[in-house]
Amino acid sequence: MFSAVLDTSVLWPSTQRDILLSLAVENLVRPLWSNAILEEVRHTNLRKLLARSVPLAKAEAHSARLIEQMCLAFDDAEVPHWEPYEGTFRLPDFADEHVVAAALAGGAGAIATENLKDFLDRCLLVLRERYGMDEAVTMLEEL
What we know:
Layout: E1 3-6, H1 8-11, H2 14-25, E2 30-32, H3 35-51, H4 56-73, H5 97-106, E3 110-112, H6 116-129, H7 134-142
Parallel strand pairs: 1-2, 1-3
């Protein structure tokens, strides 16, 4: 089965997360994430609930339950031992290194993210320099 790291940016908002995880339930993709991604999702959910005036204890419980349910439903999704790779990819934003590290450690075939500004330039460089895909890079840049 095809594996993809699901970045926080596609695990939030909830409708998008539900669609992606529904694909996983149907065995169309195997979701992967790191504990750092799960923490970002938990924190994002907590902030959203607090902004909606949900009491702190209730917001924390709801956010923890969300992560718990994701982990129960996809008990093989959390990638272990990604930490040694963090910081080795020279991404523009160091805070995104854990996503690529999880992809490498988990053997992912793809990274699902909406954060193209921090991933795209580096990916295009690899396609051009490592694989000589000049035409493909030019087409992607034009998009």
